[in-house]
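Q: My labmate handed me this sequence with no annotations at all. I'd like to see what the chain might look like in three dimensions before we decide whether it's worth expressing. Could you predict it?
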Amino acid sequence: MGTVSAIIQIAILYFAIYAILKGARGSRFGQALMGVGLLTSLLAAFVLLFHFYVLSLIIKYLLVYLAISTVVIFQPEIRRILATVGAFGYLEKPKHRANGAATPQLMADTIMELASRRIGALFAFERGISLRGYEDTGVATDAIISRELVCTLFTPPLPLHDGGSIVRNGRLASAHCIFPVSNNPELADSGMRHRAAVGLSEETDALVVVVSEETGTVSVAHNGKLYRYYGKTAKASLMRWIVKAMPESDDGLSFATKAIDFVQRVFSAKGGEEKGGEEK
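A: Here is what I predict for the chain of 280 residues:
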């Protein structure tokens, strides 16, 4: 019985560590976590090999302070991972319905039309983590999405053209919203829309699409990374992203099926591994 209990505990610990590393992969928190783990393992092996008692005590206390400082330094990344785990309830709320909701094809066509006309735009597609906190910073619309509405909305100098728009369940939930700006030094040459897109993707699991008014380039921010798409392949790449962000209604699925789908989403490879985009 003791052996079975030990195996179960090891399996739980394994999946917990795997989930944390998978969720943090590619982020600054993940890189720091891997570095700290590697350094700690080397120091521990060195101490055990040569039986340095004093040095082992120093390392033990150092790890405690290091854990506290990690929570403070990487607060946004940790908050996003915990929010993703806490978003289990979204399984009961499908992210796309047919009644009055925009289809992925309509969204892709509309965004590409904005790009061709070089109208700057910023869309956030809500997924598991709620965006209602950011929605409150803008103007509530709850409107049916159409090309004419979106083009009018983002055309300056109209009042709602600035800021981001939130898409929930295939409808335009809110416009003129304020998103957090990323402090990533790699985005120093990017505009505020792109930095806001990355900033929101660092704190939530939302898919954020940006249209540059200077170049007409379409960019996608996801999990703290920005991917730019050019030329004829831009629409196809954008379509793949939006399909993931706007899945079909799952009302007919059982709870067990939804739970399995949730686990697959948590452990699946991140969308940033998709080919065809330039990361920056």
